[in-house]
């Protein structure tokens, strides 16, 4: 158990819909990262927050948005869903800024039908 | 932009033998971190080993060691005495000072009994 909690674990929805994925980082971790892993692919970096502020941005679509709240949990919002958005979405946290070890959650499996 | 390349999509090794997974990266920075993560069939991401670029000594964790060649921008992972439990997807990752951590596409490792 990494200490990072992601909900929901599985989600099935239809094209055009909007979903919210939630992540609670390890106690004390200020950084939260979001990654997308499509079937048998690598992890695509989406976005990173540090203590509530956006710190780094990757290949995140405009239809996707994220935020980190004062209690440090984070949400990833995916809207106007397309079939190609079906993937495993990972959240990871790290203790402080400065490229420390990432602790990953178990992922949220999104299926868009 | 930084990139991470894993040129071996799949590899196989006999149990108890040694295998080396390759990783190259591209960066213009001098201060960064490198990682190898393991993803077994459970999909959980597990840190295998971590290397700071300013350290010339290669990191070692039990049966896992790296060959870090900074000038060549190469970061290979050697697994000694391979075990069935080592079968997994292995991802090489690069982390910069701004906390952006990007992953390669992975190498699937098969262990042959």
Write the layout of secondary structure elements.
The complex is a heterodimer of chains A (113) and B (113).
Chain A (H helix, E strand, L loop, with lengths): L4 E3 L2 E4 L5 E6 L6 E7 L5 E8 L2 E5 L6 E5 L5 E5 L8 E8 L8 E2 L3 E5 L1
Parallel strand pairs in A: 2-11
Antiparallel strand pairs in A: 1-3, 3-8, 4-5, 4-9, 5-6, 7-8, 9-10, 9-11
Chain B lengths: L2 E3 L4 E5 L4 E3 L2 E3 L6 E7 L6 E7 L7 E2 L2 E6 L4 E6 L8 E8 L5 E3 L3 E6 L1
Parallel strand pairs in B: 2-12
Antiparallel strand pairs in B: 1-4, 3-9, 5-6, 5-10, 7-8, 8-9, 10-11, 10-12
Order of helices and strands of chain A: EEEEEEEEEEE
Helical content band of chain A:
under 10%
Q: What is the number of strand segments of chain A?
A: 11
Oligomeric state of shown chains: heterodimer
What general outline of chain B do the C-alpha atoms trace?
globular
Order of helices and strands of chain B: EEEEEEEEEEEE
Q: pLDDT average of chain B, as an integer?
A: 93
Instruction: Estimate percent helicity of chain B.
Output: under 10%
What structural class do helix, strand and pairing data of chain A support? mainly beta
Indicate the radius of gyration of chain B in whole angstroms. Answer: 13 Å
Give the percentage of residues in beta strands of chain A.
over 45%
First CA to last CA of chain B: what distance? Answer: 41 Å
Q: How many beta-strand segments of chain B?
A: 12
CA radius of gyration of chain A: 13 Å
Number of helices of chain B: 0
Q: Can you tell me the residue ranges of chain B where pLDDT is under 50 for at least 5 consecutive residues?
A: none
Which regions of chain A are unreliable across 5 or more consecutive residues at pLDDT < 50?
A: none
The percentage of residues in β strands of chain B lies in over 45%
SS summary, helix count of chain A: 0
- Class from secondary-structure proportions of chain B: mainly beta
The pair of chains with the biggest contact is: A-B, 25 and 22 residues
């Amino acid at each position: 158990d990494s200490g990072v909690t992601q909900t929901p674990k599985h989600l099935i929805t239809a094209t055009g819909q909007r979903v919210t994925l939630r992540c609670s980082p390890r106690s004390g971790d200020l950084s939260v990262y979001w990654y997308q892993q499509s079937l048998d692919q690598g992890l695509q970096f989406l976005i990173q927050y540090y203590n509530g502020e956006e710190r780094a941005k990757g290949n995140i679509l405009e239809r996707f948005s994220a935020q980190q709240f004062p209690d440090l949990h984070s949400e990833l919002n995916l809207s106007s869903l397309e079939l190609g958005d079906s993937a495993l979405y990972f959240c990871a946290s790290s203790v402080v800024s400065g490229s420390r070890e990432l602790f990953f959650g178990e992922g949220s499996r999104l299926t868009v039908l | 932009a930084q990139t991470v390349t894993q040129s071996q999509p799949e590899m196989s090794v006999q149990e108890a033998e040694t295998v080396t997974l390759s990783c190259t990266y591209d960066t213009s920075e001098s201060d960064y971190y490198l990682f190898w993560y393991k993803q077994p069939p459970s999909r959980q991401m597990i840190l295998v080993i971590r290397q700071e670029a300013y350290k010339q000594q290669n990191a070692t964790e039990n049966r896992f060691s790296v060959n870090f060649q900074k000038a060549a921008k190469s970061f290979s992972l050697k697994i000694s005495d391979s075990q069935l439990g080592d079968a997994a997807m292995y991802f090489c990752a690069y982390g910069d000072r701004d906390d952006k951590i990007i992953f390669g596409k992975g190498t699937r490792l098969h262990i042959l009994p």
